Amino acid sequence: MKKFLIVPSILSANFCYLGREIKTMIRAGCNLIHFDVMDNHYVPNLTMGPILLKSIKENKIPALFDVHLMASPVDSLIPLFFDLNVKFITIHPESTIHLDKTIRLIKNIGCRVGIALNPATSLHYLDYIINDLDLILIMTVNPGFGGQVFLSYILKKIQHVRYLINKNKKNIILSVDGGINLSNIVSIIQSGADYLVIGSTIFHSKDYLKTIQDLKNIVI
Ligand code: DX5
Ligand code: ZN
């Protein structure tokens, strides 16, 4: 079976004990953490921002972050994530007027660039930007909330993106976000995913470490 990485989404974590929750993920071997920023404009929900990452850094929690920006306008937010242990910043193409410029802003602060494609967003967005990308995030739910049902018809889209990445001979990471659980993880990996963003399946379980191990084992 293909190599893959589980990237826990802390949107579903217990925010009263966020530091402890992240440390548990690191203990489970997951030191890349998905961080959902929602603005109640691009999506109908309001979550967290860079101030939280600053606090995590100051408390020396050795995590790296995969920041998923669901915000519009988005450009003014990007510089706020500078020097906060952020590895990837992923944006939605519909959230900005000048996509190329937004991509440059992410590169300028030394982060890797991701593009998130909603269930109904066309792959044509990739035509002119694929060479600038480090990651493509395929949404398997409509963005806005954790705990939604996985849209299985998106498996075909994942396969198509895998084909495009291979054809392009680029080392772009194919990430999948939304509704991933023990029943669908195998089909997602078989469709070509590298990173699996998983929120409620981990954080709504009783034993996080066991759940992460179960998710890994089921694939072998
Ligand atoms: C949804 C977010 C996801 C969410 C995934 O808009 O982008 O990252 O946290 O959570 P689950 O795994 O519960 O669908
Ligand atoms: Zn996300």
From TrEMBL:
One of its GO terms (biological process) is pentose-phosphate shunt. Substrate binds at S9, H68, G144, F145, G146, G147, D177, G178, G179, G199, S200. It holds the Pfam family Ribul_P_3_epim. Keywords: Carbohydrate metabolism, Cobalt, Isomerase, Manganese, Metal-binding, Zinc. It comes from the Bacteria. InterPro entries: Aldolase_TIM, Ribul_P_3_epim, Ribul_P_3_epim-like, RibuloseP-bd_barrel. The keyword Zinc applies. SUPFAM superfamilies: Ribulose-phoshate binding barrel. A divalent metal cation binds at H34, D36, H68, D177. Pathway: Carbohydrate degradation. Its cofactor is Co(2+); Fe(2+); Mn(2+); a divalent metal cation. Its EC number is 5.1.3.1. One of its GO terms (cellular component) is cytoplasm. It catalyses: D-ribulose 5-phosphate = D-xylulose 5-phosphate. GO terms for molecular function: D-ribulose-phosphate 3-epimerase activity; metal ion binding. Gene3D superfamilies: Aldolase class I. The active site is at D36 (proton acceptor), D177 (proton donor). Belongs to the ribulose-phosphate 3-epimerase family. Catalyzes the reversible epimerization of D-ribulose 5-phosphate to D-xylulose 5-phosphate. This is Ribulose-phosphate 3-epimerase. The gene is rpe.
